[in-house]
Design brief:
- This protein is mainly α and about 100 residues long.
- The chain is built from four helices and no strands.
- Helix 3 runs antiparallel to helix 4.
- The radius of gyration is 17 Å and the shape is elongated.
C-alpha cells in the first residue's frame, strides 16, 4: 500500500510542472514521463492488492505456477518500493534545483 501512496505523491509533484509546457518543453516531457510511469504503477499496485485479497494464503508446492507467481509478486513489490523511493528522491532534488 505504501508503494501506491508514494506513486500518488510522485504524480502530484509532477502536476506542479504542467506550466513548464511553454517555458521548458524538455523538462515538461521529463515530468510527463514520470507522471505516466507513476500512474501505471498505481494501477498495477491496486490490481495486485485486489489479487492478493482474493488469494490470502501462499499456494502450496504442488500448485506450482501460482506459487511462483505469488513469490514473484512479492519480489516485484520490493523492487517497486525501491523504485518509488528513488523516483521521489530524484523529483525532490530536481524541484529543489529548479526553484532555487
Amino acid at each position: 500500500a505504501s508503494i501506491g501512496a508514494f506513486q500518488i505523491l510522485a504524480c502530484c509533484t509532477c502536476l506542479n510542472h504542467r506550466r513548464d509546457y511553454k517555458t521548458n518543453p524538455l523538462y515538461f516531457k521529463h515530468f510527463l514521463n514520470i507522471f505516466l510511469t507513476a500512474f501505471v504503477n498505481i494501477i498495477i499496485v491496486h490490481m495486485v492488492l485486489v489479487l492478493n485479497s482474493a488469494t490470502v494464503t501462499m499456494p502450496k508446492k504442488g500448485q506450482e505456477p501460482y506459487r511462483s507467481l505469488a513469490i514473484l509478486m512479492r519480489v516485484l513489490a520490493i523492487l517497486g518500493f525501491i523504485n518509488s523511493l528513488l523516483t521521489l528522491q530524484v523529483q525532490f532534488e530536481e524541484a529543489e534545483n529548479y526553484y532555487y
